[in-house]
Amino acid sequence: MFEHAQNLRVGIVGAAGYTGAELVRLAHRHPRLLITFVAARERAGKLLGEALPSTAGVPGVGDLVLETFEPERAPEVASRCDVVFTALPHAASARAGKALLDAGCQVIDLSADYRLRDAGTYAAWYGEHPHPELCADAVYGLPELHRAELEGARLIAAPGCYPTCSILALAPLLSAGLVEPSGIVIDAKSGVSGAGRSPGASTHYPETAEGIRPYKIAGTHRHTPEIEQELARAAGSEVRVVFTPHLVPMTRGLLATAYARARAGTTADACREAARAAYRDGLVTVLDGDRLPDTLHVRGSARAHVAYALDARTGLVVAIGAIDNLARGASAQAVQALNVSRGLPDALGLPEIALFP
Q1: Domain extent for 267
Q2: Can you give the pTM of this predicted structure?
Q3: Among 76, 163, 218, 286, which one has the highest count of C-beta atoms within 10 angstroms of its own C-beta?
Q4: For the segment 313-347, what is each residue's pLDDT rounded down to a tens digit?
């Protein structure tokens, strides 16, 4: 366990990206966090208020200078930080995280580098892992499912946005034996901010504003093994899913609709009760009756909304989840995991009410 500290000094590597910007916003409002180090390679040397205009004029935040970070700087950064969030591309994040861990920092990684416990699975989907020996040591940062493991964890792997939404909707049903672990189909839709801040043809406004498109279908999306890993843990047996992501013309938000074969006696009420039992602690709202999730109702919030229905004609359970992909799907969940690791309330410093409208 960590020693008690009144305030935690926080570093953010990758602070000028979308998830980094969200981390800055959340860390600033957190009563126990103090931002002491921000890094961003392309904007190094600029004030944070220049790189993130939303922070301009905020004392102690907008006037921070963005620095570079290389693994050899880890001891110096560790002298200034108790915990460092790493929001870098895969492999680069692993190298940064290893150096910071060795220097004595707690590390919360927002890349995919430590989400998969098996280094061989990581290699099959992402390539060679720079530090495969750490894969089995990292704790998957989904507090509602890994609370005990997170307590005192030094290396936390913040889950991906698609897996977060899909897992939260389905895990209680598999744990309770309400649905079959085979034949699960997940249809998910995300806002374009999930692609990051660097511009590209697929996220250029004129090419996204009037259309909706699937991408990386038929088992080719890298979040597939992450979803299967966590759902298998819930089911106690192997799980294979058909996962189809879509890009939709909105900035923030993610909606996942999953279809699973109901077991005998399963009802929508039983699904809701299983989810309520699983989520007594944490930041998940189980909607009643015919109420259905809407990304607008979680925009900017650290909460997830889930709902359930039974299609009696086909025998399928429809499990639906909605999150903000940058908040609950990334940065807010990373802060929630930090809170749990330090023995603090899940929601400390986090927005639970969405921006509306």
Answers
A1: 162-325
A2: 0.94
A3: 163
A4: 999 999 999 999 999 999 999 999 999 999 999 99
